[in-house]
Design brief:
Length: 229
């Protein structure tokens, strides 16, 4: 395997400006790469640009300069339909708030990104969704509606959902930010297990120094710049 085959995500000199209310540069020459199987955290003070960066890396924000490569392919400048297919196929998302749909069952919620991708039949997806729920010890809750779960359980389901298409990369913006210590630990340990047992590549923004210390590598940001990676 060539060395470049190992790189899952790479950013080169990413600059980002916001123009409202005044022109402000929020990302400055952000360059780094992430290798297959790495569990990477992103830390930095509030307002330093972490969420803005994640939004760009996840291809949802295309208004930046610089270059972005995913899985060896240049993705900056691609069409929105290309990017949305890429996201469905290659990226799993976990946010601070779970964004589960309350009118659907736990199982259906986990299946949704799979239905969107359209690669597997409904039957296969049910099977896959149960498998992912089992990783998080949530298989017995599959038939419940999402609003019948505790906060920690909802977040575990949200992570199971992020895994449904076996993504190349999981990205999280403060996935434990809304959880108590006990549930944070559960989520952290599951991430760790995903990295170790499945070689899952993960890029997780966190405020929690203990969480960051447990990851393979930490990218530190300050005032729109990467100061350590
Ligand atoms: N839509 C926007 N328009 C203008 N400025 C914005 C916008 N979104 C974010 N900003 C500014 O960009 C900077 C970076 O914001 P960002 O949300 O990326 O920070 P963050 O590191 O994720 O902070 P936190 O840890 O509080 O989540 C901040 O100064 C913020 O005020
Ligand atoms: Mg943020």
């Amino acid at each position: 395997m060539r060395e470049t085959d190992q790189i899952v995500l790479e950013s080169k000199n990413i600059d980002k400006f916001f123009y409202n209310p005044t022109k402000t540069q929020v990302l400055k020459e952000v360059s780094f790469s992430i290798n297959r199987g790495e569990f990477v955290s992103v830390i930095g003070k509030s307002g330093c640009g972490k969420s803005t960066l994640l939004y760009i890396l996840s291809t949802m924000d295309t208004d930046y300069s610089g270059e972005l490569f995913m899985d060896g392919e240049k993705i900056s400048g691609k069409s929105s339909s290309f990017l949305s297919q890429l996201r469905n196929e290659k990226i799993g998302f976990v946010f601070q708030f779970h964004y589960l749909l309350n009118e659907f069952s736990v199982l259906e919620n986990v299946m949704i990104p799979g239905l969107k991708l359209g690669k597997y039949s409904r039957e296969e997806l049910e099977h896959r969704a149960l498998e992912k729920l089992r990783i998080f010890d949530m298989q017995d809750h599959a038939k419940k509606k999402a609003n019948q779960l505790s906060g920690g359980q909802k977040q575990r389901v949200a992570i199971a959902r992020a895994l449904i298409n076996d993504p190349l990369l999981i990205m999280g913006d403060e996935p434990t930010g809304n959880l108590d210590k006990k549930n944070s630990d559960i989520v952290f340990n599951k991430f760790k297990e995903l990295a170790k047992e499945f070689g899952q590549t993960m890029l997780i923004v966190t405020h929690d120094p203990e969480f960051a210390a447990g990851t393979d590598r930490t990218i530190e940001m300050e005032d729109g710049r990467v100061i350590r990676f």
